[in-house]
Amino acid sequence: MDNLHGILVFLRVVDAGSLSSAARNLGVSVSAVSAALARLEDRLSTRLINRTTRRLNVTEEGAEFYERCKKIVTDLESAELTVRRAGRVPSGTLRVGMPSVLGSKWIVPKLGEFVDAYPSVSLEIVCTDFVPLSMGEGLDVAVQIGELHDSTLAVRRLACPQYVVCASPQYLASRGTPKSPRELENHRCLTYRRPRNGRVWDWRFRVNGEIRTVAIEGLVTMNSHEALVSAAAAGLGIIQVAGYYAHSCIQRGDLVEILKAFKTEGHIISAVFSKQQPFPPKIRAFVDFLTHQFRRSPWSENGANASLLRASVEDRPVQRAKINHARSWTASNRKRSARDRKPNTRA
Question: Which residues pair with 143 in a beta bridge?
Fold first, then answer.
């Protein structure tokens, strides 16, 4: 490697055809070029160029040395160009984790747009019910639902979905439509038990500008939001789920949204990734892709989501609405609170 400078000077002299031309191209004196060339020949113990006052003649050994060194330098320049492009153009394998339902319904169907825009990026999508809370599982990006507290991760807020209360048209025709959350005590409600901790999820409503959580006595309890939506569409009862679970059924008319005046925001959807400097282009490209997708309908129709996206930057804390854990509104709720909503053995 000590000869590298001399080799580059030698190549430039041969290409230029004279010491003076090479010196001008390199921005140095003719004597500096001549000295560098002489040092290289001394190290090689070989005459590379026969120099006269009128012209330069490359020796047989010099010609062979030129061809080999020219190829090496060309390969080095190509390698440097490749690395520089990799620092600007998204490329390589990207491993992305996401919740199964959110991913399969809202992200995976749009991946063709990303693949078309960035053909040099190979995607590996990991759909799971429980997205890891850290990047230690080999993920480059993870789509997560809920508040995040790991300060070692960068965060891009994507959306703030709303909870919807809905039931099938057949159920509402036979049992009537509740006009307020208090009237739910007279209806069949289907509840969700969180697999992580076994607790039944309390329903949330916005009442007088505040978010209230209400313990609901469920006729049937399930550990799957998709199963709840299917049960409600079949006329089994009323459900409350994040809007993206029920959106397609509401659009088709299989479910009817009710209690819209009491609708409230749900858990924030975020893209999380490791803080890296410099920032890998493939990660930035995918996070920007996710941001674009969640600015589309139906997410863009949510006013809370729109305001969140306007204020969204990486690592900025999100202001949450004040939540009051309301006292039970019904006798059935009091009964439920007394037993701490332990696992229900009923069907």
Answer: 271
